[in-house]
Amino acid sequence: MRVISNIGKYFLMLQNVFGKFTKWKVLRQLIFKDIESLIIGSLGIVSFISFFVGGVVSIQTALNLENPFLPKDLIGFATRQSIILEFAPTFISIIMAGKVGSYITSSIGTMKVTEQIDALEVMGINTYNYLIFPKIIALLLYPLVICISMFLGIFGGYIACVYGGFSTSGEFIQGIQLDFTPFHVTYAFIKTAFFSFILATIPSFHGYFMTGGALEVGKASTVSFVWTSVVIILLNYLITQLLLT
Amino acid sequence: MIKVKNISKEFDGSPILKGISTFFEKGKTNLIIGQSGSGKTVFLKCLLGLFETNSGQIFFENSPINLMTTKERTVLRQEIGMVFQGSALFDSMTVEENIMFPMQMFTKKDDDEVRERANQAIKRVNLINANEKYPDEISGGMKKRVAIARSIVMNPKYLFCDEPNSGLDPKTAILIDNLIQEITEEYNITTVINTHDMNSVMEIGEKIVFLLNGKKAWEGSNKDIFNTDNEAVSNFVYSSDLFKKVRKMYLEKK
Ligand SMILES: Nc1ncnc2c1ncn2[C@@H]1O[C@H](COP(=O)(O)OP(=O)(O)O)[C@@H](O)[C@H]1O
Ligand SMILES: [Mg+2]
Description:
- The complex is a heterodimer of chains A (245) and B (254).
- Chain A has 245 residues and is mostly helical.
- Chain A has helices at 2-17, 24-64, 74-113, 116-122, 127-138, 142-163, 169-177, 182-208, 214-244.
- Chain A has 9 helices and no strands.
- Chain A is elongated, with a radius of gyration of 21 Å.
- Chain B has 254 residues and is α/β, with parallel strands linked by helices.
- Helices cover 41% and strands 24% of the residues of chain B.
- Chain B is built from 10 helices and 10 strands.
- The longest helix of chain B is centred in the C-terminal third of the chain and has 18 residues, at 170-187.
């Protein structure tokens, strides 16, 4: 029951986000600020994780390919497939639900409990648009983050594979190019586009509608992470079912 | 002039405000007093339109806010200044930016004009050497001053303050009270202040509305409050021995 009324509230919130617009001059500054904290601020951790997980994926694949009759270029192939199809778009989005999501929830939530949102409201500002719209726009750059993650993931796989002595550089690169289906990349970026919207809006919802004090801000961030991940995972299933089968 | 007619407000079925009627005059400091939890903040937020009342009407001059269109409300809100209990300064902005913010949002003034007007307000509230500081770098009293400056920078017709001197030492509290009163007279604003501070009641209580469990239990001025035989209000106001003695002396002198 609560969930259903919250879903209704979520969609009303979205409607308000695109209601009365904030002055462009102010909005532009907010967008740049959010790009800095949400996108630029995430590049470090995303790069780090992608590179090393890419490495692990290729080592694991190599270890499972002990049969000498299997061609060595399968390592590059399998690494590419798992990174482009799942690891970069989905796994990284779950990590972002933790990083960016809890940042959004706690920053909006803090503004809520310290009455900063009321203060904006009293001035006659559409606080939904002021607070949430810049985040949606900033996260339009999120596919770029996933792009970097894909690249570094495969690069990490390459380094681990070649320097671990599992295959030659030529074999790995041949594997990356093997059977390449451009639609898989399209599919990955369609997912990413949906996830970026979810990453901006669900954490905002949990921050905006929270009540209480500093302790509740922490709780709201946790709840927000859980819901953002759940929605991402469900959406991932749905989109995969629709696009790949 | 603000008129309140028989307003009620409930949350999830439990009544918080129960049929309050009163009025607040221009150029006067109007006080809402009452214990913690008696509904002062809810009352103020109803006046502001942050909460919808369940019944009753609120008039600004002669227009009822519940019949206003969204556009009319937006216009009205720009005539209202609000000082929140915790100051509610935007913590991502400096003091000067906080005060410039409403003008940047709602006027076509260029940056120099905005800065100049902001600095007039800063001067008016006696804020010194704080322009470039962030809210978490200044004291509680200074935060209130910034909040007051931000609320008067658009020349409001109405000023609302929620416990403007909570968390301040007595001396700073009186300075803030006096500042609010001076501004009220100077700009001829209709000011409504929530407080449970007895010093404020005595110093600036030109009109006082006493709330008890969401009901208006008494109203009058700080002069009337010495003479009242309303037990609820005198119990509340004279809950400290000091004030009991002051009252006795005052009544004897008369
Ligand atoms: N948003 C809200 N939802 C539910 N109950 C609320 C809300 N705001 C205030 N209340 C309740 O209303 C009552 C009066 O609160 P308040 O106006 O803050 O008191 P005061 O400001 O006089 O200390 C309290 O019991 C409080 O729990
Ligand atoms: Mg209060």
